[in-house]
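Fig. S4 source data, part A: sequence.
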Amino acid sequence: MRRVTLLLFVLIAAGAGLLVVGGCSSMKKSEVETRLLALEKNRPVREAGLQVRKAEATIAGQRIPVEYRWHQAGTSGPIVVLVHGTPSSLVTWTEVIHGGPGYEGLAKSCRVYALDVLGHGSTRTELDAYSFQACADWVGGFLEMLDLRDVTLVGQSYGGEFAWRCALDRADRVARLALMSSSGFPRRDDEWLPEEVKMREMSLAKWGWLLNSRDRLRPAVDLHFAAPSPAERLEEYFLVCENSDNWHAMIDLARDENGTRSTDLARMKQPVLLLWGERDIAYKPERFGKLFADKIPGARFVSVPGSGHYPQEEQPAFVSRALAEFAREGAR
């Protein structure tokens, strides 16, 4: 491990030297946003634009000024709030919201809000340290800011844990909960992926953004998909990792993942839908999907065929239909 750490230090030092010589730095959030929205797959989001509002929210026990950014679509039907995972941004939901060849998007029958999470995407608000509870508080603050009630809250991966913590803390606003390949339970030592081990254990991991590249990201991303990632999917991951604050949040959250609130899941009162990629290797359905199904009273488990860890990207038609049906059940 010492040899690996030393090698990483040398590589980062060399990378930092090149950045200084080249006059480069972390990509600004404004540029991250511009380039994400410029991708053709995100044209519907670009054309509608993002909503932005400054407010105050209680995050990790402190009342602070914040700036929320979200995409809004659909004019009628039940309210659905979508919460992405890490590293990602609100545009991971574009195809679920707006549909594609042969299927209608979620916005056809629901009022949809895709939220950019604290420490992710192009969100400007920054913290000295990020945690699952801070991100859950961020989601709750968004619901409070817009006075959203009777919400179907949807979260994927780390976003799933942000969502279920928020559902527990803000049951007055969250009526239904959908989790996709969610974190939340303790993992054994052999259940961490190699990249996660590096993020959790290497002292210099927070400087990894200096070495960010598409070629370095591709193996880590493709691990979660059945086929090699399309260029635009890979570009989205690359862009969010080009910002140092986004990278720091990813490392902080990887280190904060510990399952400490998993015992709280037994008191979940809302109806819960579990959508799990049948080939998910991060949180295998036969173990983690089962844990959620066993722990949450009345939770309904649905396997997403042909999908790994990111059902919203691999099977957007399936996910869109399942979420629309689940949200409508609460409106009947």
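Fig. S4 source data, part B ends here. The radius of gyration is 19 Å.
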